[in-house]
Amino acid sequence: MADVLLSLTMRNDVAQVVEDLLLSRPDLARGFTVSLAEGHGAVIPLVEPAELVSGHSPRTQIRMVGPEDRMRAILDLIKAELPGTNIFFWLIPVIEMGRL
């Protein structure tokens, strides 16, 4: 099965729970990268005063690469364990990967 890139974007307060969930399943998530991000746009609710002033909401993004069936199993796991957490995701094909 071809590798895909799974990207998850979420509120910062949800990120540690997702990281712990991924770390508990090394059979699905062999490794991942975590980065801070900023959510912009009409679909991002700005709630805190600092968000209203800055015009964006702090987010965390988690990315990982693996076989599509494993990445879909991770999505199923998150849906089952963390319902309603409003995590945005996307899957994209990986053309090539490696180490330099």
Notable characteristics:
100 residues, 32% helix, 3 helices, alpha+beta, Alpha-Beta Plaits, four-stranded antiparallel beta sheet
Model description:
32% of the residues lie in helices and 33% in strands. The protein is of the alpha+beta class and 100 residues long. It has one domain: Alpha-Beta Plaits. The chain is globular and about 40 Å long.
Topology:
Elements (H helix, E strand, L loop, with lengths): L2 E9 H12 L9 E7 L9 H6 L2 E11 H14 L6 E6 L7
Antiparallel strand pairs: 1-3, 1-4, 2-3
| Overall outline | globular
The residue ranges in which pLDDT falls below 50 over 5 or more consecutive positions are none
Number of domains: 1
CATH top level assignment: Alpha Beta
What is the oligomer described by this structure? Answer: single chain
Termini separation: 24 Å
Tally the helices: what do you get?
3
| Residue-averaged pLDDT | 87
Arrangement of strands in the largest sheet: 2-3-1-4
CATH architecture: 2-Layer Sandwich
Number of strands: 4
**Gyration radius over CA:** 15 Å
- Helical content (DSSP H or I, runs of 4+): 25-40%
Order of helices and strands: EHEHEHE
Structural class computed from helices and strand pairing:
alpha+beta
CATH-assigned fold name: Alpha-Beta Plaits
How much of the sequence is in beta strands? 25-35%
Largest sheet: 4 strands, antiparallel
